[in-house]
Amino acid sequence: MPWLQLKIETGKADAERIEEILESVGAGAVMLEDAADQPLFEPPLGTTPLWDATRVVALFTPDSEMDAILEYVAAELGQPLPPHRVEILEDQVWERAWMDHYHPMCFGDRLWVVPSWTPPPRPDAINLLLDPGLAFGTGTHATTALCMEWLDKLDLQGKTVIDYGCGSGILAVAALLLGARQAWCVDIDPQALQATRDNAERNGVADRLTTYFPDDMPHVEADVVVANILAGPLAELAPVLAQLTTKNGDLAVSGIITTQVEDLQKAYSPWFSLDTLQTKEENWCRLSGKRHADR
């Protein structure tokens, strides 16, 4: 069955109100999209940020009276309807369409992330089987890619690893496949910890991986620590990650942008020399270095 797709170009002041009105008149689904490619890097806790230019997209059944719907939305807003258009959206097998957009990805020289429905492009490589799910981390985001490339370059044979803010567990599982002996994974989200355990099971490394909430994490020290979060939490976690990293151990932090690098280096300087900077699209960065041997 085809759908009628209504797109309304508006601002963040009216977007949520328009969303509510469209839901009240029977929209099958309503989505809010960025209409001007504006990144939202680190919103304050408890907020739901919207873009300055927001596109509200609603789907209606083909028998919907679109003229009446548009008239009703304008009346409820108390103002003329913002720029908008109505399109016919042909039906398709949405699961198949989604799968067609997610392909195997290579990180560094050895490591591939491969969805379950695709044969590995290089069967002799280190292939991490991973499907998109509820938890963050499939390799498609620049910060995850930066951390994966860093792990690929390390000699992880026999090392212990902590993935702090593990999301899907992609970094910990990758480290184990690359030769690490043991991985401890930490996250505040129970869905992330479950996704991490599921992905470890799928890749045959569940016996070497353990998950924890932050408050339950025992005092351990790892040879390699990686944290792909955001600049604010990373700054607060500096003393925690220092305690978890062995002397001369390796640390990588990501989820930051270029303007936040100097502050992060200062926050970690009592314990680490974070002097290797790598960047990807949209100014996303990864800082890495070693724990001081004498502090």
From TrEMBL:
Its EC number is 2.1.1.-. InterPro entries: Ribosomal_L11_MeTrfase_PrmA, Ribosomal_PrmA_MeTrfase, SAM-dependent_MTases_sf. It is found in: Cytoplasm. One of its GO terms (cellular component) is ribosome. One of its GO terms (biological process) is methylation. The keyword Disulfide bond does not apply. It comes from the Bacteria. S-adenosyl-L-methionine binds at T144, G165, D187, N228. Keywords: Cytoplasm, Methyltransferase, Ribonucleoprotein, Ribosomal protein, S-adenosyl-L-methionine, Transferase. Its main location: cytoplasm. It holds the Pfam family PrmA. GO terms for molecular function: protein-lysine N-methyltransferase activity. The keyword Methyltransferase applies. It catalyses: L-lysyl-[protein] + 3 S-adenosyl-L-methionine = N(6),N(6),N(6)-trimethyl-L-lysyl-[protein] + 3 S-adenosyl-L-homocysteine + 3 H(+). Belongs to the methyltransferase superfamily. PrmA family. HAMAP family: Methyltr_PrmA. Methylates ribosomal protein L11. This is Ribosomal protein L11 methyltransferase.
